[in-house]
Amino acid sequence: SNKYKAFGLILNSKLIHFPELLNASDNLKSNVVINEKYEQWPKIPDSKINTPFLRIIENDLRISIEGIGDFRVHNGNEITFKKDKIIQDPNDLSTFILGSVLGALLIQRNFFLLHGNALEKDGKAIVCLGGSGYGKSTLAYVLSKYGWRLIADDMVAITNDGLVLPGIPRIKLWYDAIKESDLDINKFNSVREGLNKYILTKESVNCFYESVQLEGIYRIGNFRTKEISLYQDSGSKIESEKLKTLILRNNIFKPRFVRGLGKESMYFQKIINLVKNYEFYSMQIPYGIRKLDELVKLKGLSGLL
User: Fold this and answer.
1) Distance in angstroms between the alpha carbons of the first and the last residue of the chain
2) How far is residue 292 CA from its own chain's centroid?
3) Closest CA to 64 of 56, 73, 53
4) CA 281 vs CA 102, 127, 232, 238, 263: distances in Å
C-alpha cells in the first residue's frame, strides 16, 4: 500500500507506485482507494453519451483502453482496474490512471477541472490554457527555469474561492523539446509505449505543493496556429465576457465526462464565477523551446504578452 497527495486528497494505491506524486503519511485517512479487482462490475445501460470505450452514469464511469486495461471510477472515492493481458509497459497503466481516470474521479467529487497547467510565483498563480500542441507544457518548463514553480500540469483544479490546488507535479515534453533542452532523455519514462513524449517528474522540475490564489488566466497561441486571429482579440488583456466564457468552455477537462456525470450546471456556475472575478490575457509564444527560452530569459512573462 502506498499513500500519495494530489489535489488536496490522499490517494491509497494498493499495488501501483506513482513516482510523480508526493508521498503521504500512512497515518492520514485515505479519500481515494486505487486497487485491482476482478469481480463483475454492475452493467451500465446504453445511452447517447456512451462510446465503445466509455460508459457513464451518475457516480459510475468505465473506461476501456486496448492494450492497457479496463477502469471503473465509482462514487468519487474508488478507482478499480483490470489490466489488459497484453500490456507492454506498466508505466502506461499508472500514466493513464493519473490522467483520464483520476480526472473522472475529481469531476465526480465536484472539482472544476480545466485542461491546462498552472504555475506559481510570489504567492500568486497563473493558469495557461490552449489546444493540444500549442506549447503549454513547453512554456511551463521554460518558466520553471526562471523562478516560476509548477502547481499542476494537464489537469488544473480551481476552487470556488479561486484557489488553484496542487495537482500532479510533472511535465510531459516531446522528444524534440527534450533534445533542444540538452536533457538526458534516458532519465525519463515515455508517456506511453511507442510515443515520443516523455515525463519530467518533480526531480527535474521546480514545483509548488500548496494551494495558491489565482491571479490570471492566460490563453495560449503560437505562430503555428491561427487561434489568436480566430478569437479576434486585439490586445493582451481580454475584456469580452463572451470570449472569456468561450475560452473556459473550450478548455474543460473531458467535457463528455462532465455531461455524463451530470455536472454541466455546476460547471456553468463555476465558469461564470471565473469570468466575473478574474483577469484573462492572450499570450502568443514562439514555436521551439530555444526561442521561447531566449524570450523569457530576456523579458520574462511580460515578453509574451
Assistant:
1) 46
2) 22
3) 53
4) 29, 10, 13, 5, 27
CB-CB contact of 207 with 117 (8 Å) = no
Greatest alpha-carbon span in the chain: 58
Q: What is the dihedral of CA 10, 16, 22, 27, to 10 degrees?
A: 50
pLDDT of residue 129: 94
Across the range 123-128, mean pLDDT stands at 95
Count other C-beta atoms under 10 Å from residue 110's C-beta: 13
Question: C-alpha grid cell for residue 142?
Answer: 521554460
Chain-centre distance for alpha carbon 16: 20
Per residue in 175-190, pLDDT (tens digit) is: 788 888 878 788 787 7
